[in-house]
Design brief:
With 87 residues, this protein is mainly alpha-helical. The chain has three helices and no strands. Pfam families: PBP_GOBP.
Length: 87
């Protein structure tokens, strides 16, 4: 009986941590989207930068739009990924 209880606790912990990870990823995605929208409005960026963000992690993809770099810098600042000096 002790082993079954331990197994149940381990499984429950694994399920709980997986749900927590999903919540964290969901919130990160929402915050990223909000920050990107803010940057697009502030910098008057075209919709074409969305394609660059979508394809960014694809192997062999090269960024071709300079404005995507501006969006990345803006996002880095909005999401506190860099300090106020940009480092």
């Amino acid at each position: 009986m002790g082993l079954s209880l331990r197994l149940l606790v381990v499984v429950a912990a694994a399920i709980f941590s997986a749900e927590s990870s999903q919540d964290v990823m969901k919130q990160m995605t929402i915050n990223f989207g909000k920050a990107l929208d803010t940057c697009r409005k502030e910098l008057d960026l075209p919709d074409s930068i969305n394609a660059d963000f979508y394809n960014f992690w694809k192997e062999g993809y090269e960024l071709s739009n300079r404005q995507t770099g501006c969006a990345i810098m803006c996002l880095s600042s909005k999401l506190d990924l860099v300090d106020p000096e940009g480092k």
